[in-house]
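Human: My hope is that you can spare some time for a protein that puzzles me. I am handing you a single protein, as its sequence and its fold in token form. Could you go through the record with me and say what the backbone is doing? Take your time, and here it is.
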Amino acid sequence: MLFNENNFKTLSKISIADSPCVSIFIPTHRDGHVQEDQIRFKNAIAEAIKKLQQGNNLTKKELSEKEAKGFLTSAYDLLENKDFWLHLSDGLAVFIGQDRFEYYTLPINFDPLVYVNNHYYLHPVMPMLKKDDRFFLLALSQGKVRFFEGHAHSITPVKINDLVPANFEAAMALEDPEKSLQMHGSGKAAVHHGHGTYKDEKDWQVEQFCRMVDNGLMEMLHDENAPMIIAGVDELVAVYKNISNYKHIVDAHVGGNPDNDDPALLHEKGWAKMQPYFNEKREEKKERFNAAFAENKASSDLLDIVPAAINGKVDTLFLDKKTPVIWGNYLESNNTIDIHEKRKPQSICLVNLAAIKTFEQGGEVNQIDAPISKSQVNAILRYEKY
């Protein structure tokens, strides 16, 4: 099951004073490592049991070993589900609470982590919520036309059969037969009135097919600006790019006939081509941070960033993927934070808090491969700091 914004909103609002919330993240494999993945999850359960028995991990009291194991019954059941471990992705996220057990197999390679508190640890799954890596993929052939909305970690088919012909044959059936009579030429270059010169009638028909597809898609895409990549044979892609009214088709394309590619494979091929495009956009965001920092509209200090996030003042938050759990508390009375060198009974992860509050108030959260500054948490602010 994929993690979406509705899942996030539900989990982010949960805060239980007298019952623990357990968040577990482990890296997994798509195939061939069942025993290794099960062992890693078993170790995570054992770590959760220890943390449930530690008083400083909860706001009320520690659990006995028997109580902790009982609380994690559903996790043990998942561990023993042999079929489940045969169908994984790159990472497993599990959220356990009072009357709650949710798990997500996700295309994210998590660092192993077990978090026990009165709320859930969510920032590792937030890449699933990103909207700035959105793109379209048009799988185009004379045999089939399909359209998808993609993100870094997902792809969704879009229904278009009421807008475009299903294939070349269907497109030609929709053509006015009298138009074909306007084609002139006997083995020579053919001229279709109003459309220029073509080597033969088939070339004209292929272009008409592409125009019909594009006209239909433009009814849906007329006010969109997400980049589009096309999957198809080189010749057909070139024709479509030449006639298309969509202004955001990228130069790269996925070559070959896509008819036998399922959505997962199309996503894999498409994202391989789109990733450099989005990486470039992320580098531009980092440059924007440096420019904002020079104008006193950015910060690399958690003491600034957490209160700003809580008060809706963070435009863009950058988290190093290796950012550790940083314990502390937010003091609402004076809008400041305390950072705890070691965890205390009331400690929360300040990084997790900043990420959730930034997203909830319309900001953007980016997990990056390396920190922008010496700090592992950086933010572009909506206003000057002082």
